[in-house]
Amino acid sequence: MLGFFIFIVACGAALFITTVITMLVVMFIVGSCIEYVDKHKKTKGDKLLITKIPSKEIQWTAYAKPIDESGAYETTHIVTSNPERTLYYLYEVVKGGFEKISKSKNPNDFDEIVFPKRGETKSKKKKQTKS
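Below the sequence we write its predicted structure tokens.
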């Protein structure tokens, strides 16, 4: 009877130790994921900035504007898509990274955001496409 009691206590202790080790491993993995996200995302005011385009997205094109008469250009926006090319994303290039400002099934919709019609502002166009 005593042997059976020792066996039950030993099994309980082994189960407890296994549970604690599993919890520690899960906490380490979650902590590493949070640290990775924090490393690659920054906040600027109320905006979420990313330091690099997600690796699962395909970069297709970029919008640029001239910065001087010598022909030098500055990239202002980048268009990416998911691998299936069913959804496209528009990122604005900002100091310190990129800000995802819109998504669409048709990348031509982004022309209206990047080059608003006269009398419209970018913020008005952003609000219309997000809703």
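Strands lie at 41-44, 47-50, 58-66, 73-81, 88-94, 97-104.
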